[in-house]
TrEMBL record:
InterPro entries according to UniProt: Nucleotide-diphossugar_trans
Membrane-spanning parts: 6-33, 305-331, 343-361, 373-396
Species of origin: Paenibacillus borealis
Name recorded for this polypeptide: Glycosyl transferase family 2
Family: Belongs to the glycosyltransferase 2 family.
PANTHER family membership: POLY-BETA-1,6-N-ACETYL-D-GLUCOSAMINE SYNTHASE
Key words, A-Z: Glycosyltransferase, Membrane, Transferase, Transmembrane, Transmembrane helix
Domain of life: Bacteria
Any one GO MF annotation of this record: glycosyltransferase activity
Length: 416
């Protein structure tokens, strides 16, 4: 067996191990979907708890009005929740727009915090810490500035967390509001359904674990106070705080009936900037929590740590290795006796990818159509392959930030 064969076998085993893990998550997620589809959301017993909704925003004038108006229209008792918008060092017309909404709703608990370059401008985590100092709720909910949650979204999250003391947080589902804007947003819509909510559902079903997304979630105030707020160095503040909640002994549950709609990038340039930021943020969380692999108290969350390590390091290296070897083999520079087997497994992986995603789409109204088959196939050979570039560039930026000791800052996603 040649060195090329050994490297190819190792790469194939790593890739397929992760592929089978994702297949298991999809199957478990689908079972959770069947389980919850006809199951009513728990009722809130007694007095509704006070909730603080925080919206961190930086130059979000294009979308912020629609977001705040949708939050004001939630079917939660108006005197039992407050909205705090942290307009963080914005240079657009956000302050004027928010001030106008505040004047039109004088009876509502709507608080606008306008920061400047001295007090703010240091990223989402810092903005959330600023907002938290003004909050009164025993529960804290977070929505991104481009979100329009459905009227029941908050009530469903509150009901889940109030009916189970073992839950530290409850997350909802987010959908793509501008799905039909471009081919890219079609890809993102499918990715969101398959690798966001279905994988979350599967992890909850199998391990009673979920990772907090950046939006549409609720957590206990006592947790934020105990951990000292959000880590200002963390770009992926949602993933980072999830691990700290786990270590406190709490669980994070997924409630798919709580839905928010968000705007996704419509151009590759904007998408690439957003996703490399996410990758860099998740790599920071991985490195920070890697010692937990050897901590007995973290036994329940080792799957998540290993999963993230595998995705951002093992899978990336394996994919690059196998692709390079196959190309070099085709060009005659190296010889591998299992190139044929690798090609067969590659085709089988595509089949599993398409089937898994198509099964996921059957769970959503309006998504189940044969036209989506070619979208999924095209997504595999284009969008999914770009992930390797995103992960590699995120890794490069992470180490560059460590070397030059750069502070976290806002990375503005263009709105439409």
């Amino acid at each position: 067996m040649t060195v090329s064969d050994v490297l190819m076998v190792i790469a194939v085993i790593c890739i397929w191990s992760l592929l089978l893990v994702n297949v298991a998550l999809i199957i478990a997620g689908y079972l959770y979907y069947i389980e919850t589809e006809n199951k009513a959301v728990p009722e809130i017993k007694g007095e509704y708890p006070m909730v603080t909704i925080m919206v961190p925003a930086h130059n979000e004038g294009v979308v912020i009005s629609k977001t705040v108006e949708s939050l004001l229209a939630l079917d939660y008792p108006h005197d039992r929740y407050e909205i705090i918008v942290i307009n963080d060092n914005s240079s657009d017309n956000s302050a004027e727009l928010l001030g106008d909404i505040q004047r039109r709703n004088p009876q509502r608990n709507l608080i606008i915090i306008n920061t400047d370059a001295v007090t703010g401008g240091k990223g989402k985590s810092n903005a959330l810490n600023i907002g938290f100092t003004r909050s009164r709720g025993e529960l804290i909910a977070i929505y991104d500035a481009d979100n329009t949650p459905e009227r029941t979204a908050l009530r469903y999250l509150v009901a889940e967390i109030m009916n189970d003391s073992t839950l530290g947080a409850v997350i909802g589902k987010f959908r793509t509001r501008n799905r039909d804007a471009s081919l890219l947003t079609r890809f993102i819509n499918i990715e969101t359904l398959s690798f966001q909510w279905m994988a979350q559902a599967g992890r909850w079903k199998l391990f009673k674990l979920c990772t907090i997304p950046g939006t549409n979630f609720i957590m206990r105030r006592s947790i934020v106070e105990s951990i000292g707020g959000w880590d200002v160095k963390a770009i992926a503040e949602d993933t980072e705080i999830s691990f700290r909640i786990y270590m406190m002994g709490y669980r994070i549950k997924f409630q798919p009936k709580s839905v928010t709609w968000e705007q996704e990038p419509q151009t590759v340039k904007v998408w690439f900037k957003q996703r490399t930021r996410w990758a860099k943020g998740n790599i920071y969380v991985i490195v920070k929590n890697l010692p937990l692999l050897f901590d007995r108290q973290a036994a329940k969350i080792r799957f998540d740590i290993l999963y993230y390590v595998s995705i951002y390091f093992l899978l990336l290296i394996s994919l690059v290795t196998s692709d390079v070897l196959l190309v070099l083999h085709a060009m005659g520079y190296v010889h591998t006796t299992i190139a044929g087997l690798s090609s067969f497994l590659w085709l089988l992986a595509i089949v599993l990818f398409v089937v898994g995603i198509f099964v996921t789409l059957t769970t959503e109204k309006g998504e189940m159509s044969l036209s989506n088959l070619w979208i999924i196939l095209l997504m595999y050979v284009s969008y999914c392959q770009l992930w390797m570039v995103v992960a590699a560039y995120g890794l490069y930026n992470y180490f560059k930030d460590v070397i030059f000791k750069r502070e976290a800052k806002w990375y503005k996603t263009e709105r439409y």
